């Protein structure tokens, strides 16, 4: 004795009720999307305390790009995906984010007055600064300091 189970496709509830196992191939399907599980080449790390900042900036011979942002800042949200792309495009640089509201002591020490502000460090020293959501200026600063 053989048992056959009708194949269930991702279909709407109404279409499933109407369709018989023989005509299920003709029912409308709900679109599905496959996601890749491959990790991106680089990521932007979130700094949450002054010791993390000190360790990140002290990295020798590596360009460190620090994105000083605020969660309520519209331009910060707009440029964030571009910063992630830069982290993939420039794997020789390290990218970090600093929420000025969560780590105000570091933001004050750095003199952050506007968001977003991008600071570039090399060998523990500040070598560049870009104020505002200007991807071209940021990329130029990154290229000039690699």
TrEMBL record:
Coiled coil: none
UniProt keywords, alphabetically: Disulfide bond
Signal peptide: none
Pfam family, one: Thioredoxin
Entry superkingdom: Eukaryota
SUPFAM superfamilies according to UniProt: Thioredoxin-like
GO molecular function: protein-disulfide reductase activity
Protein family (similarity comment): Belongs to the thioredoxin family.
Protein name, UniProt field: Thioredoxin-domain-containing protein
Species this protein is from: Myriangium duriaei CBS 260.36
């Amino acid at each position: 004795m053989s048992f056959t189970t009708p194949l269930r496709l991702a279909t709407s509830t109404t279409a499933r009720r109407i369709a018989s196992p023989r005509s299920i191939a003709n029912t409308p399907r709900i679109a599905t999307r496959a996601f890749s599980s491959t990790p991106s080449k680089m990521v932007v790390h979130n700094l949450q305390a002054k010791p993390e900042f000190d360790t990140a900036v002290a990295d020798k011979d590596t360009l460190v790009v620090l994105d000083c942002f605020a969660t309520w800042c519209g331009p910060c949200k707009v440029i964030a995906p571009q910063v992630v792309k830069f982290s993939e495009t420039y794997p020789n640089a390290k990218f970090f984010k600093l929420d000025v509201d969560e780590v105000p002591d570091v933001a004050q020490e750095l003199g952050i007055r506007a968001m977003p502000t991008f600071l570039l460090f090399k060998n523990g020293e500040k070598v560049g600064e870009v104020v505002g959501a200007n991807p071209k200026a940021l990329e130029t600063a990154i290229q000039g300091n690699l």
